Amino acid sequence: MPTLNLQAKKREVKGKQVAKLRNQGQVPAVLYGHSVKPVDLSISSVDFDKIFKAAGESTLIDLTVDSAKPVKVLIQDYQLDNLKNRINHVDFYQVRMDEKLHAEINLKFINEAPAVKELSGILVTNIHELKVECLPQDLVHEIEVDLSSLKTFEDAIHVSDLKIPAGMITHHDLHDVVVLIQEPRSEKELTDLEAKPEEKVPAEAAETEAKPEEK
């Protein structure tokens, strides 16, 4: 993957005044890290959106602040304004290349499961992101999961089946199921589920549960 570069400027504006920055197409941000003094920044919202789509939260970015030498960072956190559909704030974490870090890598599911295509099975995904530990240079944007091995309702893909890149370890149990196939439910099963009344707690039992224990 090519190096991702992002330009930022030191920011003096704080508090309620940052609203003006957002209206000017800027995103307030902060840079911090191990033994790194926090620095308030502003970045172009257009530039950041492009970088975020390519990097996500598990890809290194070369961040240049004003005219300083670029530093390696990860997008540690961000705040999203759902009403205006824009990012309101970003946290950049400056990494040390000799220090292992914890990250979550997106799983990219590729190909079609034969049990879905041929047997009308239901694909059930239990893990979407893999928790890993590695040096910054060993980070990857995503890990592919090939679904073509799911041929029957008994088949499943476990963490141990994933092709985890060299230099990276996962903190998931290797027996954890990433994805599996469920048999399709019959029309009768679906009808029974819709017709099944909700379980209600008897009034006397409810009063007993609600009544505090006497001391």
Summary, kept brief:
The protein is an alpha+beta fold and 215 residues long.
Structure characterization notes:
It is a single chain. With about 220 residues, this protein is an alpha+beta fold. The chain has two domains: about 5-95, Ribosomal Protein L25, Chain P; about 100-185, Beta Complex (RNA Polymerase Alpha Subunit, Chain A, domain 2). The chain is built from five helices and 13 strands. A six-stranded mixed β-barrel has the order 1-3-2-6-5-4. The longest helix has 11 residues, at about 45-55. The chain is elongated, with a radius of gyration of 24 Å. The termini are far apart. The model is unreliable at about 205-215 (pLDDT under 50).
Question: Keywords, please?
Answer:
single chain; 215 residues; alpha+beta; Ribosomal Protein L25, Chain P; 2 domains; 18% helix; disordered C terminus
What distance separates the N and C termini? 66 Å
| Average pLDDT rating | 88
Looking at CATH, the homologous superfamily of the largest domain is Ribosomal Protein L25, Chain P
Q: What is the quaternary state of this protein?
A: single chain
Using the CA coordinates, give the radius of gyration: 24 Å
Structure summary, number of beta strands: 13
Number of domains: 2
Kindly state the percentage of residues in helix: 10-25%
